[in-house]
């Protein structure tokens, strides 16, 4: 009798824990109902949750459905799949957090994210393309930049995106700031559209090494006679204009100095920094909109790399159809705060020791050096003539 009681108790425990399962996702507001509520509510609430305006969401949804094979399944609509993806990448939410929000299983959340990611990768091939060879409006319409930068079609730079690499590769992915990241190269137009992206490089890799890989093996081509504006770390090339080393350059340095350029090299560096600022802004707005890029990821590394491409493609679409500048303003505000802190550090640093100049680079080609000098001298001649005319 005692043994029967014990066996009955064990059977009851087994049934309670493994046979009779209690429903987990029991909220009355299911995922699709929540999306409908957002669409009918204040657009700012929609933007806060899904990182774009409702009209942009519907445009993107229609595009992915009609052209890039995003489909509804038996139980989950394409609309909910896209919203799930945006909820996760926009606020760096976990799979478990998305399960609670959309009242879905972990498998369903993962499947929805992968399907949207695949559609966005197909979109990337269409919307992230090399720019026109025409003189950009932002150059042609600005007398400070034209004709000096008339052959420049955009700017390029690298940025670090948080990464969770395989354990065997963690040392290589740890960057100079101490955290693990991908070193992502991107080129953009002056109106903040991505035209080339290369993701997946280790955080410890130099920017110049990533650029060389892009040019030699990864399909990044610069048309003959055209140039990009780049940071000094890339080295001066005939198709890449960089600033003079050892000369004040970054805009935050100019803000701290509060004075006019004193020679041709300083003027060139100032205008180069002003025009190249677009690449810093595009990285800023991308990370402000899609928080997943600023936190270690729970996804496989290949998915982390593909997310960068997908989010850059989505950025281009948003820039085409949305007039809201909310995230651009937030990115600019964050940059101003960083620049202010930099200025304060530099002020304290100068009070303790003189600032050191960076020696000139040895990788400048003679042709590119002559071209840069001619641009700087032409700028200086125009600048001094304008100042004299005002006196």
UniProtKB/TrEMBL annotation:
Chain intervals with Basic residues compositional bias: 347-356
GO cellular component term, pick one: nucleus
Cell location: Nucleus
Ranges for domain DUF8040: 26-121
Main localization category: nucleus
GO MF terms held by the record: hydrolase activity; metal ion binding; nuclease activity
Pfam families per UniProt: DDE_Tnp_4 (PF13359), DUF8040 (PF26138)
Residue ranges, annotated region (Disordered): 331-366
UniProt-listed InterPro entries: DUF8040, HARBI1-like, HARBI1_dom
Reported cofactor(s): a divalent metal cation
Keyword entries, A-Z: Hydrolase, Metal-binding, Nuclease, Nucleus
Residues that span the membrane, as ranges: none
Domain DDE Tnp4: 156-316
Family: Belongs to the HARBI1 family.
Protein name per Swiss-Prot or TrEMBL: Uncharacterized protein
Organism: Aphanomyces astaci (Crayfish plague agent)
Taxonomy of the source species: Eukaryota, Sar, Stramenopiles, Oomycota, Saprolegniomycetes
């Amino acid at each position: 009798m005692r043994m029967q009681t014990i066996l009955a108790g064990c059977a009851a425990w087994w049934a309670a824990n493994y046979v009779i399962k209690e429903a987990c996702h029991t909220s009355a507001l299911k995922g699709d109902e929540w999306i409908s509520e957002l669409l009918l509510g204040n657009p700012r609430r929609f933007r806060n949750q899904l990182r774009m305006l409702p009209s942009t969401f519907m445009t993107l949804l229609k595009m992915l459905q009609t052209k890039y094979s995003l489909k509804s399944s038996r139980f989950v609509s394409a609309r909910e799949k896209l919203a799930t993806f945006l909820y996760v990448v926009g606020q760096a939410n976990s799979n478990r957090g998305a399960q609670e929000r959309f009242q879905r299983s972990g498998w369903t959340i993962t499947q929805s994210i992968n399907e949207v990611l695949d559609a966005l990768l197909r979109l990337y091939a269409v919307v992230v393309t090399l720019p026109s060879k025409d003189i950009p409006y932002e150059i042609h319409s600005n007398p400070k930049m034209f004709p000096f930068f008339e052959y420049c079609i955009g700017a390029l730079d690298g940025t670090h995106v948080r990464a969770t690499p395989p354990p065997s590769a963690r040392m290589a992915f740890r960057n100079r700031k101490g955290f693990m990241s991908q070193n992502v190269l991107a080129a953009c137009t002056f109106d903040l559209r991505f035209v080339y992206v290369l993701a997946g490089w280790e955080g410890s890799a130099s920017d110049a090494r990533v650029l060389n890989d892009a040019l030699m093996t990864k399909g990044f081509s610069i048309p003959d006679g055209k140039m990009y504006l780049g940071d000094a770390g890339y080295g001066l090339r005939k198709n890449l204009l960089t600033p003079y080393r050892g000369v004040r350059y970054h805009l935050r340095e100019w803000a701290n100095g509060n004075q006019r350029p004193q020679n041709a090299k300083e003027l060139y560096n100032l205008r180069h920094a002003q025009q190249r600022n677009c690449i810093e802004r595009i990285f800023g707005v991308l990370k402000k909109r899609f928080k997943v890029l600023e936190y270690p990821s729970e996804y496989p590394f290949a998915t982390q790399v593909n997310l960068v491409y997908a989010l850059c493609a989505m950025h281009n679409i948003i820039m085409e159809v949305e007039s809201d500048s909310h995230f651009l303003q937030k990115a600019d505000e964050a940059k101003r705060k960083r620049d202010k802190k930099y200025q304060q550090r530099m002020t304290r640093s100068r009070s303790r020791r003189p600032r050191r100049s960076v020696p000139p680079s040895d990788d400048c080609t003679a042709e590119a050096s002559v071209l840069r000098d001619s641009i700087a001298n032409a700028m200086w001649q125009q600048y001094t003539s304008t100042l004299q005319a005002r006196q």
